[in-house]
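In response to reviewer comment 3 from the previous cycle, which asked for concrete evidence that the modeling workflow produces usable outputs, we include below a single protein chain processed end to end. The sequence was submitted unchanged, and the resulting structure tokens are shown without manual editing.
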Amino acid sequence: MKILAIESSCDETAAAVIEDGRRILSNVIATQIDEHKLYGGVVPEIASRRHCENILAVVEKSLTDAQMKLSDVDAVAVTYAPGLIGALLVGVNFAKGLAAGAGKPLIPVHHIKGHIAANYIAHPELEPPYICLVASGGHTQIMRVESYTKFVTVGRTTDDAAGEAFDKVARVIGFPYPGGVHIDKAAQSGDRTKYKLPEPHTVNPYDFSFSGLKTFVINLAHNSKQRGEPLDENSLAASFQYKVADILTSKFVAAAKEYGYKTAALAGGVAANSGLRSLLEQRCAESGIKLYIPPIALCGDNAAMIGSQAYYEYTEGGVTAPDDLNAYATMPLV
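The workflow returned the following structure tokens.
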């Protein structure tokens, strides 16, 4: 089954053609990073306008790269939640028109399910059940993946997501948007033991809280500047990155042990962080847990992951979108 997938939840206009949920026939992304960098973050109105400008060319290129015509695909898939509402609406309405005009089924896909499904493309042998850590700019949660379409939440962030905390800390340190990649790069040259950072506490042991940690680092940076004291940016980046990675991995591995999982996966934009990847690999190996991580190219927003999840939504659950499919800025996975 060949699915044409569209993703426009934030600042990447993406389209891909995926075969049987596992094989990429094409994967096209038009990024807006350079433009949003001027403002220190994503400007929703600008993102929506660029999606309008880019989406036709991106979809056409995805079909061309796959050496296919629209009539050759079996279905159209699209991210419908969660994300920036204006950005989502561009993709949803384009996909609705495309599917209706071509007489193809339209498959709606939850963005976080897509991130999890990126692992199916990278690791054909991976099958549910397993436990997954999702860490991105807007979401941080531990999920029990019981089947391709059934998920159970073990823990989630009670305030900021990990990626959001990375971006806000990067900004106060002085790094440009997107902040996470610059913190990762700076951390390679820093001393992660130089700054002692607090350990957040949550009622549910598998929930996360990054707001207080983020505020502590921001205040530390501001106070150093006000006192005229030098700030070791690389070491602060290293200290913060390690603390976030330590929190994520310790809770995730503990949850895997409690629920008896020997197979685990990492997903989301923060999965590209080298500190998190290496620490999670180390701790899973020490605990006898087989860990799957998508390649860097599939960690960020892309349409290939949407096409992968769409295949299972359709073949396992028979999910198709109604004619009045809408976009939603917020929508819990479960």
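The beta strands are 2-7, 12-19, 23-31, 75-81, 106-110, 130-135, 140-145, 151-156, 263-267, 290-292. We consider this sufficient to address the reviewer's concern, and the full set will be provided in the supplementary archive.
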